[in-house]
């Protein structure tokens, strides 16, 4: 998987959720090319074990994306330039749960945690911010009247899809702001297709969940295969706000650029989501306009 990755000696990558699945596969590929990788994970036992597999330039640091206090504490530990910030970690739950800050857990972890982390670290990022999304964005909608699912009946897939759409809108608006600030940093996004990573998709319906789990075991590609689009978005020839995924029906195979569709292309929604996210996290874009 590392054949087409250029030498990464002297470069640093922070990878959220880097102790397992696609995050770990991405980290291992970069580490194999000489990069220093920082695994930003909740479980330090798993993080340290994963870092040990990658060699002396890998380390694990605590980060709970469901806690804005933890996000700030992690950001305070980063005092050197970062070439790549890879927002990979994700959460899905079949029941309505909340983060330490009171946000719906999927929205708080998958979007707001990464939003805050990115803006807190952006002054130290030198090359790219990569955010891992999903094709579930296609049928999703940002409901600004009920972002936290306080009035609607909770739908796990609906909540997950909203966060994955938010990831893409965040990437789009981040790139616009970087351009406006005259920054050379690129914001890109990727999705892994169908990959067997240990990440559990739950609908709350037992039979459907079992069917999905069986299909994943039989048909999905490996975590290493799912990491290919993330690596392309990290080190490949990809434009700002570019979206990478598997080239074979968006499910598996070699990585390639993909066309976005629907609400993911709406600049007005992207700007509104950014403003709402700033208010909720109390973290703002740190760069002035050029």
Automatic annotation (TrEMBL):
The keyword Oxidoreductase applies. Gene3D superfamilies: NAD(P)-binding Rossmann-like Domain. Transmembrane segments: none annotated. One of its GO terms (molecular function) is oxidoreductase activity. Keywords: Oxidoreductase. It comes from the Bacteria. PANTHER family: PHOSPHATIDYLINOSITOL-GLYCAN BIOSYNTHESIS CLASS F PROTEIN-RELATED, RETINOL DEHYDROGENASE 14. This is Short-chain dehydrogenase. It comes from Saccharothrix coeruleofusca.
